[in-house]
Structure formats: structure tokens, C-alpha cells
Amino acid sequence: MENLPKEELQDSTMKVSSLNCIDLANNDLNHLVISLKQACLDCGFFYVINHGINEEFMEDVFEQSKKFFALPMEEKMKVLRNQKHRGYTPVLDEILDPDNQVNGDHKEGYYMGIEVPKDDPHWDKPFYSPNPWPSADILPGWRETMEKYQQEALRVSKDIARLLALALELDVNYFDKPEMLGKPITTMRLLHYQGISIPSKGIYACGAHSDYGMMTLLATDGVMGLQICKDKDAKPQKWEYVPPIKGAFIVNLGDMLERWSNGFFKSTLHRVLGNGQERYSIPFFVEPNHDCLVECLPTCMSEGNIPKYPAIKCSTYLTQRYKETHVELSIYNQQT
Q: Any idea which UniProt keywords this protein has (predicted)?
């Protein structure tokens, strides 16, 4: 806490958040759904345990992530982010809270998605393929590890989506449709926060934002830094730390699910503060199919509760949000 900015240290409301914990091994479906629904109504953040991903494998994923970020900059720039938002993102590439940030986020990352074969009719969609993988000569086995983790994270996401469907009083398989999670957009990010201390207001490891899509599964290395703000309209905003739990995902809902649920479920502001320690995390973002029309769910509207958001196609919404938060790729061409 001693490395937090002065305005944070003076805020007596700073505290550690208490979140619901969803145990996927619990056979009491009714209890699971009630607990999940309460979390979604409260703040849209919750823990997920007993998800079936081996802890030893997770340690390997983080070790492989560290190996990538330890590469010389010239090697990382060989896989620079492309037009499909895949590849390496240097420090300051993303600015999530332009009204309050100086420059951009003090983190570097690597974006990847599930590969779609070139003979697939949807191969050229904006958020499918290709991933500019680092050389196997430099990082042997790296790609295979990351692809396996993406598949595992997607499986867990679909398990959670079935519980979300029940919490929204929909059929359990509602989100499994081809136009939704039957062929989803997924983006996995390896993130490296370089251990900055924050000397003044406006410099953040990751600026305040809500996620764009349906939900996010976050794996962390155990270093504290993530904060949430349950009431984004409060003045001043009150931020709470979300402590990592070993072996658990921190899961949060995205803006698309808030739109789908007509504001019933919450997409919550969150950010990361630097505290002088290096930090690694791996968020896995889940969105529906490119062509999915995100509009108010049938169970979330009534005569007295009309849709609050206009319908919008998933890829249109994502393209708009990425454009707002990332620097133009041409800036890197000017630097070479």
C-alpha cells in the first residue's frame, strides 16, 4: 500500500472486496445459480474454483508467458499487433481511461485468438486469425501451450455461460447457439506489468474501464493490483482491491452482457495499480459470434421495462471499442 498515489492513501474508503465464490464441482445447481445471480446483480465480479484446469499446467502457462516478455524488444516487435488485434502490444499501446490517464497503460501484452483455418468461410472476419506466433526456434512448445490453454479456458467459459443463462431465466443452452458461443470470438491476453511505482495522479498500470464482451476469465500470478469500483457514478469513486485466490479465476461480466440483460447484470469498472512489483496476468475475453445481434434478452424486458440499449452487431461494437482504446498501428512504422 505504501506505493499507492497520495490521493489513494488519503482515501479512507480503500478496502479489500468480498466476492461470491462459484464452485463448479458443487452439484447443488440451485445454490450455484442463486450465488451467481447475486454476484451479477451486485458487481459482476466473482471467483470460480474447481474449474478443471490443472494447477501445474497453469504454472507452465505463466512460465511460458514470462519467457515471451523476457525476449529482446526486437524479437517481440517481430510479432507486433496486426489489424486483427493479434500479436504484441508495447507499453502505452492501450489507453483505457483517456480522461484520467497520462499517456497509456504501463503494461505490455500479447493478444491471441483461437485459430480459424484458411478454408473456413469466415476466416477473414475481423476478429478471427491469424496469430503472429513467435518463432518455435526461440520459444519451443510455446504455441502449443497457449493453444491448449485457450481451449481449456473456453470450456470453462461455456460452463459459466450455462449458469448465467439459468440466472437470466433462459434455457440452460441458450448461449450455446452457433450465432453466440457456438463459434465465439475469444481473445486471450498475456500481460506483463513492469513494476512501476506510481508517483502521481494519472499514471496507471491499467486505466479504469469495463470489458467489452460477454465475460472475462482472469488468471493472475498472485500479486495484488486489481481494483473494482462497484458504483461508477459515485463521487468520489470508491475502489476496492480484489485479492487473488490460488487456483481460482476472477471472472467479470462485460458490456455486452449488460446490454443483453438490459442493465440487469452489471459490467463493472476496474483498473490495475502499480505498487513497485512485477505482475503477470492472463485475461481470457469471451464474445459471441461476429454476426450476433446483441439486443435485449426476452426475459429482461416487459411492458414497464423497455430495452435501454439499441441492438448492435457484435463485430461492429468490438471494432468501435478497440479503435477508441488503441493507438494507430502506423505509429510503430514511423519509429522504425
A: Iron, Metal-binding, Oxidoreductase
pLDDT in tens, 305-328: 899 999 999 989 988 887 877 666
Are the CB atoms for 99 and 49 separated by under 8 Å? no
Rg (CA), the chain: 19
Gap between the Cα atoms of 71 and 89, Å rounded: 14
Q: Are 99 and 151 in contact (CB under 8 A)?
A: no
Cα 152 to chain centroid distance, Å, stands at: 16
Tell me the CA end-to-end span of the chain in Å, nearest whole number.
Answer: 39
Q: Is beta strand 45-49 parallel, antiparallel or unpaired with respect to 21-23? A: parallel
Residues across the chain:
336
Q: Where are any strands of DSSP class E within 233-330?
A: 240-241, 249-253, 269-272, 278-287, 293-294, 312-313
227 pairs with which residues across the strands? 241, 271
**Domain-wise residue ranges, the chain:** 6-335
- SS3 state of residue 21: strand
Q: What angle do CA 329, 335, 336 make, to 5 degrees?
A: 100
Is residue 174 a contact partner of residue 165, using CB atoms and an 8 Å limit?
A: yes
Q: How far apart are CA 160 and CA 181, in angstroms?
A: 12
Rounded distance between C-alpha atoms, residue 24 and residue 316, angstroms: 33
Q: Which helix (H) or strand (E) segment is 32 a member of?
A: helix 29-42
Count of Cβ atoms closer than 10 Å to residue 288 Cβ: 27
CA distance to 133, 144, 205, 215, per residue, from 72 (Å): 15, 22, 21, 33
Model confidence over 49-73: pLDDT tens digits? Answer: 999 999 999 999 999 999 999 999 9
C-alpha span between 243 and 21 (Å, rounded): 13
User: What architecture (CATH level 2) is domain 6-335?
Assistant: Sandwich (2.60)
